[in-house]
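[job 0412] stage=fold_complex status=start
inputs:
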Amino acid sequence: MALYVHKYGGTSVGSTERIKHVADNIINVREKGHDVVVVVSAMRGETNRLVALAREIQEPPNPRELDVLLSTGEQVTIALLCMALEQKGYAACSYTGAQVRILTDDAFTKARILDIDTDRIKDTLSAGKVIVVAGFQGITENGDITTLGRGGSDTTAVALAAALKADECLIYTDVDGVYTTDPRIEPRARRLNRITFEEMLEMASLGSKVLQIRSVEFAGKYNVSLRVLSSFTEGEGTLISYEEAGMEKALISGIAFNRDEAKLTVLGVPDRPGIAHKILGPIADANIEVDMIVQNIAPDAKTDFTFTVHRNDYKKAMDILQRTCTEMGAREISGDDKIVKISLVGVGMRSHAGIASKMFESLAGEGINIRMISTSEIKISVVVDERYLELAVRTLHEVFKLDQDVQSKESN
Amino acid sequence: MALYVHKYGGTSVGSTERIKHVADNIINVREKGHDVVVVVSAMRGETNRLVALAREIQEPPNPRELDVLLSTGEQVTIALLCMALEQKGYAACSYTGAQVRILTDDAFTKARILDIDTDRIKDTLSAGKVIVVAGFQGITENGDITTLGRGGSDTTAVALAAALKADECLIYTDVDGVYTTDPRIEPRARRLNRITFEEMLEMASLGSKVLQIRSVEFAGKYNVSLRVLSSFTEGEGTLISYEEAGMEKALISGIAFNRDEAKLTVLGVPDRPGIAHKILGPIADANIEVDMIVQNIAPDAKTDFTFTVHRNDYKKAMDILQRTCTEMGAREISGDDKIVKISLVGVGMRSHAGIASKMFESLAGEGINIRMISTSEIKISVVVDERYLELAVRTLHEVFKLDQDVQSKESN
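[job 0412] stage=fold_complex status=done
writing structure:
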């Protein structure tokens, strides 16, 4: 008999019909003799509806009160799912974040989990009940309601799985797993059976929004086996875990990309210590997140400095740059908000040389000009013109044979 | 500096615009230097929406989970009202029933308040904040969420006013007070400036649904001055309190009526001890509430027995009666579901004789046949044919000069 934590996202519980379907899924697992703790999100659209109400009244809404408001979304779902289980003859019991007691810090709207009290849950499991916990929410030492930020239900599920030492944490969503790349761009994209935490982190942060990134970090930290699968179709999904000895290794696991980038370049800055801080300090002060940063030596003890930001922040960042660069005596600034970032991700890179050059060569072969490069141990990212996105992704998918699984690649 | 408890019902907080208006009303009181604790209901329509969701899944819904579900309605309102106050520059803090801690028994969907912890509220008031509490809800010793039943927000407000020893509990609603009778029937109906708890109880239970009856009992028990007034228009409303020495007394305060009655009569029952129980026992077992009961001696050691029920229960009650009366050897049974109950209410009756006969005389004068009579210390109820309702109410309103206030009546 195993203990599973299931998490169902907003689309999976988006209607009373869907909630009944989720109940059936849970009952299947119960019928095999397993214990189940379920974490649910708000019904699809509910959180947006509540945020809109808040904004009609206060902009920005008071963070403490916003959390009181938003936490009702999940509370509705836990009650309805328990009713669906009870209706089908299975004992169930709902708990809000406060009732479990999921203790968090008091950073309203983006709180972090500090501790989970498992006593009440263990008692209720012993009584033979399915437990349904409201995701996304917790409570402070003081008794104030907090939320963990958008997608926080994934984190609740992983944290509960860790605290309860569950056998697996299954994240049910509207996609049936993690793919080698976006199937809307490359129809031959293939579902991965397994992926490591590190790879998943790179894939998630690079725009494959299957799982909240913090939940993957959490799962990695506490070694919680995480499975992403669909609540709409049958299938094994994708297991996210640590790399195991003897695990078949693909060189490249996937290709992530991000359309929302814009790049800004300062040309001919006098190359003195601290220029990175002088350029990026005011950007950070304006709450603009910087993604890639590249600095090149230019002639005459000058330097060229380039960084990327979210496309929505492009104009604001450019205005700030105009001011600071006049002060610094830079020659000129330029920018481009019609760029995208494409990244190859794979733990196999660690042990294989030549991947970067193969990537650059194949892009060049298609006439795609690379505007920026940035690398990490398991990732190579390039920035290219927006219009090349689809061509670049398909070319790399083909070149690195991502449509074939590891077995067939090795037999090549 | 006084402490007021305000309660705003579902219509008063039915939209974000209405919530902003409520914030202005609270700010007016704050600006006069008073402390305010606010109790709110769910936004109009929200509770019905949630009940409908539950019923799509389970019928009847699991009571514990129904309370988890319904309590979200008020939680939404407390957050939005605090945002409205903060937006206008006034510090505010919301509390759910669990957070206050409003301790109740575990009778889910109709829990009773056992205790209210006032420490947290007092601390927050000392910090100069307006407190907004979710009505209608509490928490058990065990940490389970409960609700107090429909209209329970009034009870929350009165209980808080009692626990905090507030100077007055103001119930803001969509009517501007308690009237001598329904103005839709008698356009000359007049708003009462004052009414006693006992009169209000008779008025409420007889169909003037301004306040939840339990909240009036509670207010009477703990001597909380209660004021009913409109959140839409200016005005003093109606103060509900104990009778005070020197208070101007009207003979009759108002005329209540109830359209939803039906009457059943058992004729010629052998008059043996326990017949009332034999007739009404099976009715009670079927969860049918009985209102008026009248028993008359008939010739030949037989008796006639009449009672009234809600019109919706008429057919069911008649079926039950058919069965029991055959067993009892009653001569026949008859019934009528086209009747109404009309009641004169007033503490003045205690000290004035002749009110009943004046009532019967004036109804007879209009050719209205009285089918049943029932009296209490401060109330006389008659049952008449449905078609006489308007005529009877207007006649009594005229005869007892309810369109004139006490002063002008005395000077007559």
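[job 0412] summary: Residues 3-174 of chain A form a domain with the Carbamate kinase fold (CATH 3.40.1160.10).
[job 0412] exit 0
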